[in-house]
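Ticket #4471: structure output looks truncated?

Reporter: J.K.
Steps to reproduce: submitted the chain below (144 residues) through the standard prediction queue, then opened the result file.
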Amino acid sequence: MKFRLVTLLSLTIAAPVVSQTKWFKYESNPVLDHGPVGSWDDVGVFISSVIVEKGIYRAWYTGEDGKNRRIGYATSRDGLSWKKHPSPVLDIGIDASWEAEHVIVPDVIFTGSQYVMWYSGVLFLVSNIGYAVSDDGIHWSRAE
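Returned output as attached by the reporter:
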């Protein structure tokens, strides 16, 4: 019995994929401004995480008061006009904890049953990553 060895040559040609997106600055910026003097976010706000759930934009952001940074929350129907929650949704940790100076840069997902957040905590310029969960995106429990 004779066997015939057949070699197949596959030739793949790589072609560059060109994708072009033009971004335009929204004329009515900023869409989320810092808070009033004396508030927990009166120095600045830094957007970190936005998800859309049932037609509502939900944003978790870092707010700064000049001393500490905390995590805030805002909602919008169109992504342009935002309503802030009045206080931080994740505050700094207790004195001497790994997150006693700042809690910053939240990244939030919705798992279908709860919100999950990864964030950075800072103490003496040392950053670590923390984890928290929430049923409503506002009241958070840190993982032990």
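Triage note (M.O.): checked the attachment and the full token line is present. Confidence is low (pLDDT under 50) at residues 3-11.
Status: closed, working as intended.
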